[in-house]
Amino acid sequence: MTRPTSSPQPPEPASEPPAHRPRRGRTILLCCAALSVCLGGWLGWQALADSPSSSSAGAGEGHLAGATGLPAEPGEGSGSASTPAASSTTASAPASPAGSPGGPPSAASVPGAAPLAGRTVLLDPGHNSGNGAHTTEINRQVDIGNAHKECDTTGTSTNKGYSEAEYTLDVVHRARQILQDRGARVVLTQDGDRAWGPCIDERAGIGNDAKADVALSVHGDGAPAGASGFHVIMPGRVTAGKADTSAIVDPSHRLGLLLRDAFKAATGEPYADYIGKQGLDTRTDLGGLNLSKVPKVFIECGNMRNSGDAGRMTDPQWRQQAAQGIADALTGYLTTS
Ligand code: ZN
Q1: 45-58: pLDDT as tens digits
Q2: Catalytic residue positions?
Q3: Which of 118, 268, 232 has the alpha carbon at shortest distance from 179?
Q4: What is the set of domains in the chain, with CATH numbers?
């Protein structure tokens, strides 16, 4: 997501249109990849499975609303430009054989490992590298139930030009591989196969249409340089217009706690020190959550404007760890629900 404060942004990344940084958008980003050894990850998710709904330290605070400090921005980390026809619901093929070439060791290599067989996971890589060249399309207002907001935003980037869109797609690819190795059917809202978007309402719709068992939107934030850390955003209760999150608030909260814990364990990234509490935040202004009919959360993997976070997010090994944490959380959620 992009925050207003990050407007004076260097246009370096060809893929990241500087000019259209949503003034108010907050950049949600999902950054995490993990290099953690599969076995480690496997043990990790098993541990998660053993402890139903982690009610650790932040359990009670899952519903913090609002950020401490920075104004919650309307911009949705995940932009979505809806183009029905081009909808790249990249439904990945069901589980690929164990250990994909070049990929991290997979859980599939563990005896009896296919814990996610028959389950569908929706992964939403926030933004799109082509959004900057399609401002008219992404600036179109879409209905998110309790308000109208931009179809999508360009997202943020590191000061050196590594864009949020590149980051989110990379982490999602890594997480997809791990989940497929565990037997899941993974559907993506976009796979770098469309010119822009999709719009936030379509991003939610893709998960609904896929009848996903769980959904996750990955982002990287664009907060002031002095801020750092990651946080998970859970849906608040919204019943307005076509939005009705009543049925997903509780399960999404459970997912949020699992993700918060698994991501921290896999990456070592501290909780955000500028928003939310204990790595958790709850919002009712994100179309991707308001319109979702399936349990869903967003993760802002770090602040791309912070040198420390940017250094980690641009490191492939860290992104693999991030993906591992994400995959473990989703696995834990699906195997304990
Ligand atoms: Zn974002």
Answers
A1: 444 433 333 333 22
A2: 300
A3: 118
A4: 120-335 (3.40.630.40)
